[in-house]
Amino acid sequence: MFIPGKYLLFLGDVRDRLDAKTASGLIDWAPDRCLGQWRLPACGIDLGLPDLDFAEARAQGAKTLVIGVTPFGGAIAEDWIAPIAAALHAGLNVASGMHTRLNNVPAIAEAAARSGASLFDVRVPSAPYAVASGGKRSGKRMLMVGTDCAVGKKYSALAIAREMNARGMKASFRATGQTGILITGSGIPIDAIVSDFVAGAAESLSPDNAPDHWDVIEGQGSLFHPAYAGVSLALLHGSQPDALILCHEAGRTHIDGYPDFPIPDLEECIETNLRLARRTNPDVRCAGISINGRALPADERDEYLRALHERFGIPCFDPVATGAAGLVDHLENGGSGDVMADRQIVGVTQRTN
């Protein structure tokens, strides 16, 4: 999907930075396309971009207003409709990753028709998908799995794929959510697929490939999430991963938005994901642990990663603060990735780019 850039990022009236993960992901992984931000007065976050109105954004070269927030349920709020329509009248295209389709909102569809601007629904599947076959495919696959939603699965996959590509390895980032699709221009919005076909869509996302090629697959949800475990399981089965990366946010104690559901022990998370992944790939292993350490000071983060490595014997890294060099070193050096089997010490390598 080609969406014209540069982007003006719509933040609406969200008050939690976690709800702006689409905008944050674009700023971190496609900064050259992010021109400014647009906020309602009640918005409680600032992503550090210039605040531009729609005319200013157009004058500075913006082509598309991107809905940069992902509220619970994925609905377009009533208070957003008028400004989105105004952006269209100002000549901006609009791209959205909401479950609500832009064309299904009459005022937005009418504004697009009158202005001639385009609407892009990133969360709409572009093709039908078959029921999963369960057949083994050539190539290698690495899937990010999480202790919860919004713990760094997308960032981990992007960091790993970037590190592999920088070394000349054959690797492709495979997006499964709207932000990843906006960053790379391709992928499958896996949580918008009818449930019977999610595993089949995951098979389609990572087809047969060269024996030394890695598909680095963005995960979704968590097997331990009371609402989103279904999509996580189907993605786990359809991806047939050879390697899993467990993603976790340091300090998170319960499922976000569900205080009665504590985060399980990491051992339980790894064991459960491996047990269920073996349904379609008996040789799957856990190759590493990715930590979102945004809440930790640098010295505490490094010690946290070292302690995890000592505990599990596999590479432990922060995709933003340290990058994925240690994990890729481990894979290139022949580490099997079996939990508690590989005792190679992988140092914390500070990211230089």
TrEMBL record:
Residues of the D-glutamate N-acetyltransferase-like C-terminal domain: 131-328
Record domain D-glutamate N-acetyltransferase-like N-terminal: where: 45-125
Gene3D superfamilies, per database record: NAD(P)-binding Rossmann-like Domain, P-loop containing nucleotide triphosphate hydrolases
SUPFAM superfamilies according to UniProt: P-loop containing nucleoside triphosphate hydrolases
InterPro entries (alphabetical): DgcN-like (IPR011669), DgcN-like_C (IPR035086), DgcN-like_N (IPR035402), P-loop_NTPase (IPR027417)
Database matches in PANTHER family: DUF1611 DOMAIN-CONTAINING PROTEIN (PTHR40690:SF1), GLL3100 PROTEIN (PTHR40690)
Name of this protein: N-acetyltransferase DgcN
Species classification: Bacteria, Pseudomonadati, Pseudomonadota, Alphaproteobacteria, Sphingomonadales
